[in-house]
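Task: sequence design from structure.
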């Protein structure tokens, strides 16, 4: 029978308490970090030395782990500590592995974004370079204006000379017309030559 979606499910009860993975991982990582420090080794060495000294040369009635029994309690305690240390260290290593995996994924995504941005900037620079190559430079515009100014001055002087000649000699009109045609032809040739010249 299908479960009703409008009815909340009852919480399952377990015998063992439910612990958060992240909280337990932080605790285990802290313990593993402390066990890997010189302070822990020093305290453990002092504890073992005090244990051995007390149970070897202490008052006979107060010895709780005799040397005749091979320091059974100390051996059991150290074995228990070692059996718990290994899983704690493995848990800390697993957390570090997860962090490294997340960091590697973030680095990969960041590298992909940087590569895409670099390619976009390279394309924009190439398009800008092509656009700038088609723009007339300042020297080219200046030379064109200078040529136009010289042509205007020459035309003005020629017009003044032609007016003076035609007023004195009617036969000079033919020479004036030929001169104008020659100058027009020269201007067209110069314009075509500048049109073929690539912009600076």
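Answer:
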């Amino acid at each position: 029978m299908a479960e009703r979606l409008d009815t909340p499910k009852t919480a399952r009860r377990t015998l063992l308490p439910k612990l958060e993975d992240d909280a337990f991982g932080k605790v285990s990582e802290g313990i593993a970090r402390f066990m890997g420090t010189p302070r822990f080794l020093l305290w453990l060495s002092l504890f073992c030395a005090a244990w051995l000294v007390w149970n070897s040369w202490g008052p006979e009635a107060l010895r709780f782990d005799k040397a005749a029994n091979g320091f059974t309690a100390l051996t059991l305690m150290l074995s228990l500590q070692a059996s718990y240390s290994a899983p704690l260290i493995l848990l800390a290593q697993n957390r570090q592995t997860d962090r490294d995996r997340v960091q590697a994924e973030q680095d990969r995504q960041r590298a992909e974004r940087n590569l895409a941005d670099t390619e976009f900037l390279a394309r924009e620079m190439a398009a800008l370079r092509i656009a700038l190559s088609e723009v007339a430079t300042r020297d080219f515009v200046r030379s064109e204006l200078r040529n136009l100014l010289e042509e205007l001055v020459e035309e003005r002087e020629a017009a003044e000379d032609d007016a003076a000649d035609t007023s004195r000699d009617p036969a000079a009109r033919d020479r004036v017309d030929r001169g104008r045609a020659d100058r027009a032809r020269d201007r067209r040739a110069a314009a075509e030559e500048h049109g073929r010249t690539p912009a600076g």
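The two ends are 84 Å apart (CA to CA).
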